[in-house]
C-alpha cells in the first residue's frame, strides 16, 4: 500500500472512469497533506518573482528595489515558485533538508515538471549548489534531489565558495543584499537559456547571485523555479 510521505497514513485511491483513459499520476502525499500545501496561482502574483500579491501589479516592492540595483537589475528574467511557504511546507522542507528525508523530494516532482513545461524552451537546468560542508552533513544536495526524483536531467555547472560559519537564514534582510556572491563557474554558456532550481526563494539574493554568475559566463536568459516562496 502506498503511504503518504508526510503523515505516513495510507493513500486511498478512488478509481474513476477517467482512470481507464488517462493513467493517474501516483501521488506521494495523501489528499489532506496535499491540501495543506498552498499552490501559488498565477492570477495575482509579482510577474518577476511570483510573490502572491493582494492585487495585480507588475512587480512587488522587493523586485522594484532589485530593478534599480546597478549590478543585479537585469540578471533574472523571472522566478516561478510552486507553493506558499506556509507551516506545512516549512515542516516538509525541514524534514527533507535537515532530517535528510530524501524521498520527500518526490512530493514536488509533478508540479516541478509541469512548471518546467510552461517555461519551455530552455537549454539547461542548473541546481543551486550548497556548500560542501553542508552536503557532507546532509549527505545530498536538496536541489539535485528534487531534479533526480522528477527524472529531470540537470548540469552541476555552478560551484559555491563561501564561509559555512554564517548561514543565510540567520542574517538580516539588509545584510543579505550586501552578501558577496559565492558562486562561480568554469563553463561558458554561449547565450544558452538556463533555469536555476532551488528549494526556496526568500530575498532573491541567492538566485540573482547565481544568475549573475551564469550571465557573466555568457548565458542568455536566466530564470528560476523554487518550491517555496
Ligand atoms: Zn498525508
Ligand atoms: Zn517580486
UniProtKB/TrEMBL annotation:
InterPro entries referenced in this protein's UniProt entry, alphabetically: ComF/GntX_DNA_util-trans, PRTase-like, PRTase_dom
Superkingdom of the source species: Bacteria
SUPFAM superfamilies: PRTase-like
Family designation: Belongs to the ComF/GntX family.
PANTHER family listed in its UniProt record: DNA UTILIZATION PROTEIN YHGH
Protein name: Uncharacterized protein
Organism expressing this protein natively: Jeotgalibacillus campisalis
